[in-house]
């Protein structure tokens, strides 16, 4: 998943969200987080802001499918 600054036309963040293809994205109305759905049969919630310099990118929540 790539997060873009559309004003500058620059990719500002890349999230390695799923093993396989990402099939859907949805952002929360408040803009604080977004959800991704992948071929790995998971739904993941992510913070809209990226991690700080020393933090590793981790989802807030992960829902596993069958």
Automatic annotation (TrEMBL):
Q: Give Gene Ontology CC terms.
A: small-subunit processome
Kindly give the PANTHER family that the UniProt entry links to this protein.
Answer: DDB1- AND CUL4-ASSOCIATED FACTOR 13 (PTHR22851:SF0), U3 SMALL NUCLEOLAR RNA U3 SNORNA ASSOCIATED PROTEIN (PTHR22851)
Q: Which GO terms describe its biological process?
A: maturation of SSU-rRNA from tricistronic rRNA transcript (SSU-rRNA, 5.8S rRNA, LSU-rRNA)
Which named protein is this?
Answer: Uncharacterized protein
Mention any Pfam family matching this sequence.
WD40
């Amino acid at each position: 998943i790539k997060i873009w600054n559309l004003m500058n036309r620059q990719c500002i963040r890349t999230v390695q969200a799923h093993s396989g293809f990402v099939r859907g994205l949805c952002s929360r109305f408040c803009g604080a987080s977004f959800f991704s759905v992948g071929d790995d049969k998971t739904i993941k919630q992510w913070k809209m802001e990226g991690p700080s310099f020393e933090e590793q990118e981790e989802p807030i929540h992960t829902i596993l499918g069958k």
